[in-house]
Amino acid sequence: MSYCDICKEKHTAIQIEGIGHFCKSCYNDMMAEVFDVNVDIEDKLEVTIEDIDQKDHLFVVSYVIMPVGIKWLAREKDGYKIELYSSLDTELKVGLWQLIEKIQRTLSYKSLENHKGEFGLKSVGTSIVTVDHGVYKLKIDDKVIDIEEFSDMLAAYEGWMFEYQFRETSELTITEDMVLKPTSIKPDAVWKRFLKNKSYYLSEPGLGLHEVLDLFQENCDDLRFMLNLGFKQEAKQLGYRMKIELDLLKDLDLIKTLKEKIDNIIWLIP
Ligand SMILES: [Zn+2]
Predict the structure, then answer these.
(1) Alpha carbon distance 109, 91 (integer Å)
(2) How far is the CA of 97 from the centre of ligand 1 (A)?
(3) Which of 21, 58, 66, 217 is the most exposed place for a label (fewest CB within 10 A)?
(4) What does the pLDDT look like over 172-208, one tens digit per residue?
(5) Within this chain, do residues 117 and 93 fall inside the same structural domain, yes or no?
């Protein structure tokens, strides 16, 4: 077990090759100052992050700069594969932090539960459809599950309703304490949710940057859903309106980070 480079007290939860070992709280403090941290980012680097059971996962992180943006990939051997896109205007280090944030979110929840070595489905979860020699399988957490195995797991939910939604793997996954809930992506409804979060933010001056970003994540997700379901111009317009509202706030770090998040979603729309 290794200790955090910053506080030298808590155990390492995140390890970034060439950058350091950090406990969760020091990493978060560092994140809050992300724009001031200087890092060189190789085109391949190793990042180790612990999951909710404190098991370490070693990812090889790579990125490809494409004409339309930067594609990030974190790949664990025989395990998780996590993707993220950032715009060409986003600094590489910010793209890397966003990817790490996504890995942390992914590792903070498991869709399978382990009953003495037998895996079962939790009532909420995410899986990725994969193909192995022409046979389709599901990857749930870091395990590949045959359709037969999945069918056996369904026994626990006989008679229940099962909802599904296919999304690109670059999108957010279900994490701890989340449920799927039907949500309207009508522009009015999306705008109302944004204003609601904004007034909550204004009424709670003690919130940290991380908590505020978590709060507004809902609105970024809304924009992404609109985009994926074909409401592109509506998403673009709402994104602009959100950015204008954000400019009226006082916290410059927050404004910059959030506007960048919104741009990362809408910048591709013509
Ligand atoms: Zn620390």
Answers:
(1) 28
(2) 17
(3) 66
(4) 677 777 777 778 889 999 999 999 999 999 999 888 8
(5) no
